[in-house]
Each structure stands twice: as C-alpha cells, then as structure tokens.
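REQUEST ID: PR-0412
SUBMITTED BY: lab tech R.K.
PRIORITY: routine
TASK: structure prediction, single protein chain
INPUT:
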Amino acid sequence: MTDTGTLSALMQTYYDRLFIDTAKETLVFEEGAQVRPLPMSEGKIVNFLRYAPLNIITAQTAEGSNPSAVNLSSTNVSATVSEFGSYTKISKLLKLTAVDPKMKGAVEVMGQNAGESRDQLVRDHAFSGKGYTQLAGGKSALSDVAISDTLSSTEIRKAVRTLKANKAMRYEDGYFIAKTDPFSTFDLMGDNVWVNAHTYKDGMELYKGELGKLHGVRFLESTNWKEEVNAGASNADIISTFIHGKNAFGVTDLEGDEKKIYVKTPGANSTDNPTDRFYTVGWMMTSAPVALVSDWIIELKAGATGQA
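STATUS: complete
OUTPUT:
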C-alpha cells in the first residue's frame, strides 16, 4: 500500500510516539551498548574499532626527556546491518465497529513486538555464546547443572573476578551490568547484601529494567531471557544471565531507517487494496548488534527456583 489516505500528520506523530515509548520498555539487552550509527549512502557494514591494552610502564623516564612513543594496536570489528519488520492487516469492518477506532491497541502491540524482537536480536547476536561461559555450582558440564544450582552471591563474585582478571572496563559509575530474568532475580534478591534499586535511584539514573545491585554489578531484568530446556541434570531448564563491561558489545542503526511504525489507511492510489477493505499497521528497522570484546562478557548458566 503506497498511500496514507486520510491519516493526518498529527495522528502519525501520535502513533510514532506511542510506538517508540512502547518499544523502549522492552529494550533491556541494549542497555550499556556502544552505539554507532551508520550514515546513509555508506554501505551496509559498520566498523567498531577495538583497541588492545598497552604494556604497563615500569621503566623510569630520564630527567628532562620525553617518554618513548608507543604504537596503538587496534582491531576492526564489523557488523552488517539487516532489515527486520512485521505488519498486520485490520479489516475495514473491524475498524468501523471496534471500540478502538484509532488503532491505538494495534500500534501498542506492534511496538511491543518491535521492542521484544530487537531485544532478542541483541541478546542472540551480541551475547549468547559470545563470551566466557560460567556454570553454576562449579559444574564442568551443562548437563550436570541442577535446578538447585541457582544464581547466587558466590556466582556473581566469581563472574566479577573473571571480568577483573580480563581487565574489563567498568562503566562510568564503577559498575558492571548484568541482564537476567525474573526467576534468577527471585533467587538473588534473597541475598542479605542485595541492594534494591529504589534505595539508590535518587543518586543515579536507572537503566531500563534495573532492580538492584550486588558486588559491583547492576542487575537489569528482562522478560526475554535465554533458556535451554531440559539441558541440565534431571532435565532441568537452565537460564543464562549475562554480565559484561563497558564497550563489550555494540549496536548500530542505519540512519533514515531506524525502528518506525507505519499506519496505512485506504486511499485512491492504493492499487493492492482496490475496494478499501483493510488498513495496515507495521514496523520496520535496519540494525545490527555485535559482540566487541568477548572476554568482557560472562554467560552465567544456572538453575532457578520455580523452573522445571
């Protein structure tokens, strides 16, 4: 459909804002990303520059002399943007008889779908299988992880130890970030050193889905978690929590084709809808998530209370 018919600019602006606000609520895995927009007319590949740490200097510099120049070592990490989207048709009869004639509900559903889809793309392409795997309970094989090997204070300290040993960068507030799920946070929030987000929210800006912090990690809860069904001991379902440092992953969007809602009404020039029998509501985006420094990403696999 190529004609917007009678859809006013004011109504389109309203739909755009409703769509963006709804989609943003689900974008947990994107929090803390290095964002690199891809300008139009510059191809489909974006390059993130990853610098290697420099050697530690222990030799003193002679008095009155400049230190020796060193060469920076860097690696290009590339990502290719792809298109993603979905749409639905709404019959004219439904449009004329529905309690929601302005299709607000359809826009909200599409906004949630766009946000959850993008969230899972970041999870799968920037995190899952991209970093160091830590199995809860000190197990050496995923099939040995039991439902009782839950996310705990000890497991978090182990993950932080690994990130520190790998010289992972912390965020400006001095913390790492974790993305986890409702079952795992249920187990973790019972720890007596857990700090709820509401106790410190006046002192720092909260991330999307942030629940609290523990051992130098701020925890964000997503309903879009990674779960491996029947993968653990006695067919336990195993859930992944991802803990990472700054610049561990990146996200890019093609300028001019960021996530957007499209509401199309029947019109005189709509050749694919000659009798004006339906409206369409859909979304599109052109984007790419990518892992940048795999050593700065921990995938902590554990059982969880309430899981099978």
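NOTES: The longest helix spans residues 104-127.
REVIEWED BY: pending
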